[in-house]
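Entry type: protein chain
Record version: 2
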Amino acid sequence: MAKKLLSRFRPSMTLTDCLWLCVNRGKYTPGQLVDKIDYSESSLKRASLDGDSGAGFNLRKLIPFMNAQGETTILDFLNYSMGQISIPIPKSGRSKKDRMKSANDFQRLTTDAISALNEYNDKGSSQEKAIDMLHQVMKGAVELMEEVKKGNQIELDL
């Protein structure tokens, strides 16, 4: 079974935020990544800095970097910036239990997003939170749609 990749992207993040998060809070430290992606530790650290002290990130290292860290945060930022959404392609052979859990998780997520939207509309609370939650709902809906397109029906054992 393929490994599940982590995304901590939120629409309020910048590219530098995403790079910093992946470099400094990923599965591996910058020092450990040196051998895994053949990129210097100082270049990794500089790529995640803002302003003049920052440096560019070698795009040829981006996919090995995301795979090593088990992160799609940067990919999600790039997609969002272009008006797109990236979703994990559902793997075939998922158990009925896993598919039911996905449907239940989506229902919970949708309820939480509606609550955040209502709070924003009624009380003027965090626009950022409402946008973040709605973004997660869109990704979840597309992921479930892909499951349905594959013909994976969820049958209940009664």
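Comment: The mean pLDDT is 82.
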